[in-house]
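User: Hey, quick favor. My workstation is busy. Could you predict this chain's structure for me?
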Amino acid sequence: MSKVIAICNQKGGVTKTTTTANLGIGLAMEGKKVLLVDADPQGDLTTSLGWQDNENLSVTLSTIMDNIINDREFDHYGGILKHDEGVDLIPANIELSGMEMSLVTALSREFTLRQYLDRIKHDYDYVIIDCMPSLGMITINALAAADSVIVPVQAQYLPAKGMTQLMKTITKVKKQINPNLKVDGVLLTLADMRTNLAKATADTIRKQYGGVLTIFKTQIPVAVKAAETSAAGQSIFAYDKGSKVAKAYADFTKEVLKVEERAKSKPPHSR
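Assistant: No problem, here it is.
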């Protein structure tokens, strides 16, 4: 069984893309087959994995979704890129921003991405979607296609405050579109635990949301090297494997695998 995870937060700058890339490659290092989906018109995931000239890619998520909307026959595996570190990628570029408008008038508009992923996801253990920093139609498509959501939150007060709106959206999608959607947990990122602000924010998030949401034990620290990986087109594991960030993402990957193990071990009636 394949699992589809959306990495989602309408706030920008919380390391959604870095988390998508490093979780995906971390899972590949654990022997899993992984497909990453760039669902952000900025195409940051695509460029951070080494495809800097994403404007000249002939097949992207936008062209795939356009084919689905217009009911065209196409090669469902055409355009999937292969990364040296063992993950596949469906890339994106600025054309995806026009897809927001196309989806407004499309039939079953919330399910366009799901229709596509349902045709290919059986080839993968995990499909991980890097969502754009807004709650528009592309993000709704990602949540409709996903089995679960992971929410990266920067360990500062204001980004944490924005979680309330995101949780409302996830609840709405669950009620109206995707009743099986779950929140796997909240990941604290860019955490500089030497500062009182970061410590206080982490404590606040655990107190406010810890009763209803899993807060992952792993916290991703602030590090210049983590930002440099995008320019190198590599994961933190390849770029700086002995670093605290690499260890944190390895630990986080193991936590994500444990979520799945716990879900599988539960009897069907308790899920």
